[in-house]
Design brief:
This protein has helices at about 10-20, 40-50, 65-75, 90-105, 120-125, 145-150, 175-185, 215, 225-230, 245-255, 265-270, 275-280, 280-295, 325-335, 365-375; strands at about 25, 85-90, 110-115, 130-135, 155-160, 190-195, 220-225, 240, 310-315, 340, 340, 355-360. By secondary structure, the chain is of the alpha/beta class. It has two domains: about 10-30 and about 280-375, Alpha-Beta Complex (Aspartate Aminotransferase, domain 1), CATH 3.90.1150.10; about 40-280, 3-Layer(aba) Sandwich (Aspartate Aminotransferase, domain 2), CATH 3.40.640.10. Strands 2-8-7-6-5-3-4 form a seven-stranded mixed sheet, with helices on both faces. α4 runs parallel beside α5 (about 120-125). The longest helix is centred in the N-terminal third of the chain and has 15 residues, at about 65-75. The protein is globular, with a radius of gyration of 20 Å. The termini are far apart.
């Protein structure tokens, strides 16, 4: 048997989590909260179950939820997506990303990916016969636009962008999106925009959704996640929005990947979104988490620049040790009982900037335990 993914084994998340469980480490590695879901949202799911929304949803998703998503995007970003033929509910954003890539990438198509990158992008391209063209971000995780222009070719079919950015917590600026718009102006390149952390942007900054930019939006698919937004990652509920002609191709694949997704949760989210505060207040909520964590570790030997978005914080450890980040992350688990994610695994050619990623979407009690350990290193 010949593997279609010969170089893919267990992800770093699986490896680190297994080690963290074995050593009973404080786990700030994986990107999911360890605090309770809003009881109101649980109540709405219960209501949906009792009202009998327990069979297949429409392939495109519950229509009321699609309408609500359309209203939300137009209110926030000024672009109208039609709920009938430009929005699809998915089994999480990862499925949306896989489906978008599968719908458009064929043998020998080139896909530009900015590194470090979420680890689901590359395998999805490879499975569809595409070729990865990596563009390494600068050390501060901003884009080198000259490197991007150099990476473009006649075979470039898609570019994948991600803001707020996992794993770095950086965000794209208005200038970045305008630059992308100019560079792609005369090219037939599709943009896949991963915006799962759109409601986690800090310090008064603005999320620059691709939807804000008409010339980019007409060539783009946007993927989003209710799991990340409302800290219900186990529900695996996300969505994709795109112009009609792109969404038609997306849905051709979607119907054979999952057909339809989680009906009662869709009904609950549709009702929950009607109160805008349920997502507009998240920036402040997570910024407080970030600030609490950074204040707690300020006496440590780690250095950092506060994350601009997501619920991840990079910590620089070069003043502590010269160890490769994978070795140091492993030793932090075995010797100190704290788990994080090494960043080199997401970089082109494993570039190691001596950075570890910590998730601060945790209870204050968990963050206190983590800080006590980090301050002692």
């Amino acid at each position: 048997m010949t593997s279609k993914l010969p170089n893919v084994g267990h992800s770093i998340f699986t490896t680190i989590s297994q080690l963290a469980n074995e050593y009973k480490a404080v786990n700030l590695s994986q990107g999911f909260p360890n605090f309770d879901v809003d009881p109101k949202l649980i109540e709405l799911v219960s209501e949906a179950l009792k009202k009998g929304h327990n069979q297949y949803a429409p392939m495109q998703g519950d229509f009321e939820l699609r309408e609500t998503i359309a209203q939300k995007i137009e209110s926030l970003y000024g672009r109208a997506y039609h709920p009938v033929n430009e929005i699809t509910l998915t089994a999480g954003a990862t499925q949306a990303i896989f489906t978008a890539i599968s719908a458009f990438i064929k043998s020998d198509d080139e896909v530009i990916i900015f590194k470090p990158a979420y680890d689901a992008y590359e395998p999805s391209v490879i499975l569809n016969g595409g070729k990865i063209v990596p563009v390494q971000l600068k050390k501060d995780h901003s884009i080198n636009w000259e490197s991007f222009k150099a990476a473009l070719s006649s075979k470039t079919k898609m570019v994948i962008i991600n803001s707020p950015h996992n794993p770095s917590g950086a965000i794209l600026s208005n200038a970045d999106l305008l630059e992308l718009e100019v560079i792609l102006k005369d090219r037939s390149v599709i943009v896949l925009s991963d915006e799962v952390y759109e409601h986690l942007v800090f310090d008064g900054q603005r999320h620059e959704s691709i939807a804000r930019y008409p010339e980019l939006a007409k060539r783009s698919l946007i993927c989003a996640s209710f799991g990340k937004t409302f800290h219900v990652t186990g529900w695996k509920l996300g969505y994709c929005v795109a112009p009609k002609e792109l969404m038609q191709e997306f849905q051709k694949v979607h119907q054979f990947v999952v057909f339809a997704v989680n009906h009662p949760m869709q009904k609950a989210i549709a009702n929950y979104l009607k109160n805008e505060e349920h997502y507009l207040q998240l920036n402040q909520f997570y910024q407080q988490k970030r600030d609490y964590f950074l204040e707690a570790i300020k006496s440590s030997r780690f250095t950092f620049s506060p994350a601009s978005g997501t619920y991840f914080q990079l910590l620089q450890y070069d003043k502590i040790t010269d160890e490769p980040d994978i070795e140091f992350a492993t030793r932090l688990i075995t010797d100190y009982k704290i788990a994080s994610i090494p960043i080199s695994v997401f970089n082109h050619n494993g570039i190691d900037h001596k950075q570890l990623r910590f998730c601060f979407a945790k209870t204050n009690q968990t963050l206190d335990k983590a800080a006590e350990i980090l301050n002692a290193i």
